[in-house]
Amino acid sequence: MEWKTLLSAKRERENPQRQRLADLRSEFEKDYHRIIGSASFRRLQDKTQVFPLDKSDFIRTRLTHSLEVSSLGKSLGQNIGENILKYRRNSGFTPEMKEDISHILECAGLIHDIGNPPFGHFGEIAIREWFAGNLPKLTFKGRPVEDMLTEQMKQDLLHFEGNAQALRLVTKLHYLVDEHGMNLTYALLNTIIKYPVSSLEIDEHSGNIKDKKMGYYLADEQIFRNVTEETGTGNRRHPLTYILEAADDLAYKTADIEDAFVKGFITYHTLEQELAPVERANPKSPFRPLEKLHQLYERGLEKDVSSPEAYAVKNWIVSVQGFLISCATFGFTSNYEKIMAGTFSQDLFCGTFGETLMNLLGDMAYRYVFSSMAIYKMEVSESTILNDLMEKLVHAVLYFDTDIMQDTIDRRVVSFISDNYKNAYKIQARGKSEEEKLYLRLLLVTDYVCGMTDSYAKRLYQEMNGML
Question: Of 6, 14, 283, 447, which alpha carbon lies 20 to 30 A from 379's?
Fold first, then answer.
């Protein structure tokens, strides 16, 4: 892979006036403005990161998380780009490319979660499980729906994935000018494709990080091919995807600990006890996490702050992020040749001093927060909401756009779905078989559900069930 093609500024719809306009922005800077002005981006302010429908103005949402990933991604891009230049790792790499990398990663951070449904990652699980439990029961004109769909269509639904939905949203569903969505650059689109495989190619046991999940739906295969052929990645990961993923992992693993501390799931002393084994396991590490936590606690005492524990934990998070940025930078530059060849199969923290700490942070969030009774109770409620919405919406769309008359309620339920999504469906459905249209209508449901905020999903559920 070569940077010249990897950083392709091509779009699905090219603007013939582009060169004649008095606009000094690069194409990737234009992407940034398209994203932040979109309704889909604004909706992230009311989507769960960890704690759904939280009333605290401190706790992170998908929007604040995405801004943090954007910032970290840009910083990593600057560090890595400067390293490539300084050590002449690639003779064709220029200072302009370094700037482009930073802008692409800044944009990618903003949209990496834009396709996620309400209620965080649990929402993805709930949608997959709904299809697993209900797809075998659905019939269309007396025929089992499962028999009408191809294997890839079925696997798309059973492996529903927020990352694949993000690609779909920005390329098709954000209907502003035409059917090309936000019409973002190919380099940016390729960066957000974390898993360059179809639902039929998922292999969780391959040992390669790129095969873990689905990266695109059958309905969006053509845009995937257009992008990856232009950039030259094929079915390999784009090098910037590793950096985006590192920024995402770094952001949520540190933020989850801070949010958990503020919510009372984790205490200063809990963190202290958990860090001790990490410090012993990495005697050669330049960063001593427990020692740093103690230093910050002592500084809090000296400053006579109201809570030296809170002072220590929050400032410790900042220190950890700085250390992990250097680890991710080293992870990329030390594996540069493998990454550019498309053969590197791990994340950027693998084999660095930060690997053990990253693993601990993720494990702590799972043990103290995600498997807590409070979160479980929330997830039971969220499951009820999503299951009900999926049930009513799928029933309503089965005979939408067919020669079978819908009943009164189904027509009204279909009317709730955004015209943007219905327009996108109609464009994709042109000239398609009855089976393909049925598949696209099922995607129309997930398109609509994923466009919902947490509050909207809850309110729609209540209204559709007469809870006025």
Answer: 447
Sign of the Cα torsion 360, 361, 362, 363 reads positive
- pLDDT, tens only, 211-220: 999 999 999 9
Compute how many other C-beta atoms are within 10 angstroms of the C-beta atom of residue 225.
Answer: 12
Domain definitions of the chain by residue range: 1-372, 374-464
User: What is the distance between the alpha carbons of residues 128 and 100, in angstroms, rounded to a whole number?
Assistant: 36
- CATH number 1.10.3210.10 given to 1-372: yes
- Both structure tokens of 251: 């952001």
How far, in Å, CA of 238 to CA of 332, rounded?
Answer: 13
Instruction: List all residues 6 or more positions away from 131 whose beta carbon is below 8 Å from its beta carbon.
Output: 157, 158, 160
Distance between CA atoms of residues 164 and 213, nearest Å? 9
Do the beta carbons of residue 215 and residue 237 sit within 8 Å? no
Distance CA 340, CA 242 (A): 11
> Which backbone phi and psi does 385 adopt, to 5 degrees?
-65, -50
In this prediction the pTM is: 0.94
With contact defined as beta carbons under 8 Å apart, do 346 and 368 qualify?
A: no
Q: What is the pLDDT of residues 409-428, one digit of tens each?
A: 999 999 999 998 999 999 99
